[in-house]
Design a protein that fits this description.
The chain has 471 residues and is of the alpha+beta class. It is 36% helix and 23% strand. The chain is built from 14 helices and 18 strands. The strands form 5 sheets. Strands 1-2-6-3-7-17 form a 6-stranded mixed β-sheet, sandwiched between helices. The chain has a 4-stranded antiparallel β-sheet with strand order 11-13-9-14. The protein starts with a helix and ends with a helix.
Amino acid sequence: MNPSALLSAISAQWDAEIVPQLTDYVRIPAKSPHFDPQWESNSYIERAIRLAEAWVKKQPVRDLAAEIVRLPGRTPLLYFDVPGSNKSDRTVLLYGHLDKQPEMTGWREGYGPWEPLFEDGKLYGRGSADDGYAVFAALSGIGALQAQGVAHSRCVGMIETCEESGSFDLPAYLEALAPRMGRVDFVIGLDSGCGDYERMWDTTSLRGLAGGRLTVEVLTEGVHSGDASGVVPSSFRIARKLLDRVEDATTGRVLPAEFHTEIPAERAEQARLAAKILGDTVIHKFPFAGSTQPMVVDPVEAVLNRTWRPALSVTGADGLTPIASAGNVLRPQTSLKLSLRLPPTTDGEQATHTLKRLLEADPPHRATVCFDVEQGATGWNAPPTAAWLKQAVNDASLQFYGKPSAAMGEGGTIPFMAMLGKHFPDAQFLITGVLGPHSNAHGPNEFLHVPYAKKLTACVAFVIAAHGAIG
């Protein structure tokens, strides 16, 4: 392999093809099914997957086969298959997704979720980094290897369109496609993050998730607050009291022991090393308003808090009248959307049932309380890393970034990883991505750091070649 030529070819393809393709992709509001129940009739997901399919089929990759796989009643999945150029029967599985989070407010003037803007090497817009780039990077890396005659094992790709809704359609596709994929012994997931833009990062764990809608109802209709307050309990106050069962409002610590787990020594050491590299960036990468202070000031504790400890967020609300039109009315109900991040090894389904039981039991004032479960996903903790993979990742980082690689857990959830761990228990995993400081996935002003993505594409190709070279 000629690493300089590899990066040069990949960079040229990014500039000439991939950035324009992603620019068109950003324009498509391909929101995940949870956020667009009419996804099928609206056809945005269909447009996104057809855009990716058309590009994939044009790639000069030897014997490449690609198709949109459709199972009845489910979101579509893009599948590609590249035969190996060595004699191995081993298979590399590459993963990404094309569905997106909703718009979110707070975009800077001139920026928008469906209005792509390329500025200072960054492509702004929803889905560019999370993680529409994945399929383009995967095929670009494989094509660059083949152009140099570098051997690789068979590579297959699964690009789903339901990840942001918890990948509820993916088990069926995995079941249907597993026989076609053969002996998968290496999985590359491109939907994760990076601690900085100066090296390759290996994600070694992902948190799980228990999510749903908490509704507290006290009246059948709103009434005058001057008449009812002091007699009718506030639905908002009851919701606050219920949340106190889950979270210490003073510290933010999640209270029930069922939601905690012991942090493995190896992961604690990785957190310490990552914090040493990143320093205060772990904390100050977030856009704190005014004089807001973080929950912790120790970078090591910050890394562990966002990767191995549970945390509760209220991500949405209904029943709250906009201030401009809020009269003196005691509202009949309050609904809160809850997102409880779980340690990687905590069972997501069981935790979701526990959360429902905690919130619904013996409600204050015997109010009508219901917790409707929306998501329950188990996290993922990587198996021990093989020597060849650890060496390849570090060598790739040194080659293309000039700095050694680093490893760290991520706070988000990729349900696919837990599913794959069950299907391919002996596989090695490389989970990486481009979501670094300020990239702001799911929020306003999301961007893809294109110079970093080019080098990451080269790193992934380098590691695929290393996999192809092992016995």
